[in-house]
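Technical appendix A lists one of the benchmark inputs used to test multi-chain prediction within the project. The record comprises three sequence entries:
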Amino acid sequence: MPELPEVETVMRGLAPVMQGQMIESVTLNRPDLRRPIPSGFARDVSGRHVETLQRRGKYIVVLLEGGLGFVLHLGMSGRVKILASGQQYTPEKHDHILWHMKGGACVVYNDARRFGMVFTVDGANWGAHEAFAMMGPEPLGNEFNGPVLAQRLKGRKADIKAALLDQRVVAGVGNIYACEALHMAEISPLRTAGSIRGVRAETLSRAIKTVLSRAIEAGGSSLKDYRQADGSLGYFQHQFTVYDREGESCPSASCRRRIGDAIRPAHIKRLVQGGRSSFYCPRCQR
DNA sequence: CTCCTGTCCTGCCGGC
DNA sequence: TGCCGGCAGGACAGGA
């Protein structure tokens, strides 16, 4: 469930606790998440200051002094808890990794389904790591636009919905925001990916940017709330327009306008593509 | 190359 | 009430 906006929010929440601070020690409560945690991870990371935090797609990249870095992926149930200095730590089930910061703050990684991952990278050249080497453009950057999206979809026979989940096409989009962006762009999830070009590609690229930006804004405001509450990050839930709304009326004004308000609105449908649920409006998404 | 399916993992929810 | 099956989903492997 954590997609680009959630990961961005978690990273922003981590920054004040980690950036410029030293990792004093690391506790590993188990040797693996989805994959084994690299041997020596705790030793390698301990005793170093955190220089910067970055996000690439759904990954958080923590760059440390001395040219080492490590990467955190939240998988689907990963969440991060931040304990301020002096705050009592109450262990919870699935607390797998704890970073103890010098000064007493602590960052806890909790992941019930253990789809997350942690690995170290060469801090000077982390983009070359296999997790990033083939990754598509950052959707919120200037390097992502209609023509770029069209180029990346060119010739692809898969459904656009499936193609958007491919991190080589565009980074950071997952199942929820793929549904939301396609709805905003009024494009059917069943449309062949390669047919998205020209104006349609422009519309879709803009919808992706809008949907993700709005979610980050929502995350930013909920971040404040959660930090006041229990320090938990990555928990926030905001309202989706179509995702998980099977059977509800399509809220899109332009959808209603097509036939006039007097007539019944169209209803959100669910279908399974590549083993994943898609939610869409069969009337306004074409 | 691209596409497609299965796998990992556990909590939760619906059905009986 | 309790059990069981199915579902959720990001990345990746492996086969077509």
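The radius of gyration of chain A is 20 Å. The longest strand of chain A covers residues 48-56. Comparable benchmark entries are summarised in Table A2.
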